[in-house]
Design goal:
The protein is α/β, with parallel strands linked by helices and 215 residues long. 36% of the residues lie in helices and 17% in strands. Helix 1 (26-39) packs parallel to helix 2 (57-73) and helix 3 packs across helix 4. The N and C termini lie far apart (92 Å).
Length: 215
């Protein structure tokens, strides 16, 4: 109906073929976030995806891809057991996803959550179980929502104001010039903000020495 009315439609935070859109490079953001954890010495890095977030499956898939690319780049084999899923706001689901990861034979030393809300839920669950963050497990989010600052959460930041400004300017161009390019895609950068929830990977526990009886 909007097309029939000649109304310009701008997609925000997702890429749609044949439509103008403004979004961040989720692949690069997740790649840089995972590299941050790799550079801290982590090799068992889990990724917690969100499910059921209508309209955001594009970002979800791209962030998982960036995580996988960083591991492959570092020569670390992909492990499906280190990828868990939960719904935003589902405390029980997040606890179950975390329980799956912590019950692995080699549990992760770092968890990369696809969204800050999920990362905060992970933090809360870890603290309830008295697992120290970041001493035993580092936690990284994505988005840099206000709650990330409140919880001093390390995260991959994007700028909603920049996205909104670019979308507004693109809409004005389409309104002012009906012949303007209607398939333009504006891709904005992300950047890692390290805070107190990420730290160097814990050292492997040393095996106790076997002491024989004096002869």
């Amino acid at each position: 109906r909007l097309d029939n009315l000649g109304m310009p439609v701008i997609y925000v935070s997702q890429h749609v073929e044949g439509r103008p859109s403004v979004y961040v490079d989720d692949v690069a953001g997740a790649l840089h976030g995972t590299r941050h954890l790799l550079n801290l010495g982590h090799r068992r890095i889990a990724f917690v995806q969100t499910v059921g977030a209508s309209g955001f499956s594009f970002s979800s898939n791209e962030r998982l891809l960036g995580y996988q690319q960083a591991l492959t780049e570092a020569g670390i084999p992909l492990d499906d057991d280190l990828v868990a899923a939960t719904r935003v706001g589902d405390k029980r689901g997040t606890a179950e996803a975390l329980g799956k990861l912590l019950s692995l034979r080699e549990p992760p030393t770092a968890i990369f959550a696809e969204q800050d809300e999920v990362a905060v839920a992970v933090l809360s669950t870890l603290r309830r179980t008295q697992i120290a963050v970041p001493e035993r497990i580092s936690v990284l989010g994505f988005d840099d929502q206000p709650l990330a600052d409140w919880f001093d959460l390390s995260t991959v930041a994007q700028s909603p104001s920049d996205i909104g400004r670019e979308a507004g300017e693109l809409a004005l161009k389409l309104i002012d010039d009906s012949d303007a390019e209607h398939e333009r895609h504006v891709v904005l950068p992300t950047h890692v903000i390290p805070r107190t929830t990420t730290a160097p990977a814990p050292r492997p526990q040393e095996e106790p020495e076997l002491r024989g009886e004096p002869g």
